[in-house]
Amino acid sequence: MRTEKFISCDCHAHGILMDYSISEGYNELYLTMYGDGRYYDKNTLWYRIKHSFKILCGGEIYGGDLILTEDKAIELKVYIEEFLNKIK
Hints:
Elements lengths: L4 E4 L6 E9 L2 E9 L10 H12 L5 E8 H18 L1
Antiparallel strand pairs: 1-2, 2-3, 3-4
């Protein structure tokens, strides 16, 4: 079962890769922020070569990782729901 979900920024230059792990007594949500989210989508061969060269020359493709336990994931969910309720 695939647990990953990638959400691209509306500007298509950033993205968040979400994944989760469920194990007995310890559940975690993983968030990885990417500085150039376009790499994840299907792109032209030229773009993939250019992006690969950038990585090989020491460029970073991600901005950082965030690991949330179940309590923190619920806190994030509540915050997002608050936002969505206010914009309805």
